[in-house]
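Problem statement: downstream parser choked on a complex file, so we are re-checking the raw output for the zinc ion run. The parser issue turned out to be on our end (a line-ending mismatch), but while we're here, posting the original submission so the record is complete.
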Amino acid sequence: MYKCKEIIELTSQNMETSLPWYTRLEMKAHYLMCTTCNRYAQQLQFMNKALGAFEGHAPNKDCQLSDDAKQRITKKMDQAKLTGD
Ligand SMILES: [Zn+2]
């Protein structure tokens, strides 16, 4: 069984590379028992998706976020940090 610290590390790794199925299974089992790691994984997934969607839809390199959008993103990220234990 993995410890929280290891799960956090594996969760980040899993975003970059595909981990073996048995590792992912252990992670899933841990998420079911541990709300802290579960919440962390959800936040990481959300950020990953948000970044991916942004990169995928940016029409060109000159595309700039409006100040309003920047503020909203910064606020969301701060909120995620605050609730992330
Ligand atoms: Zn945990």
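For whoever reads this later: The CA atoms of residues 39 and 83 lie 9 Å apart.
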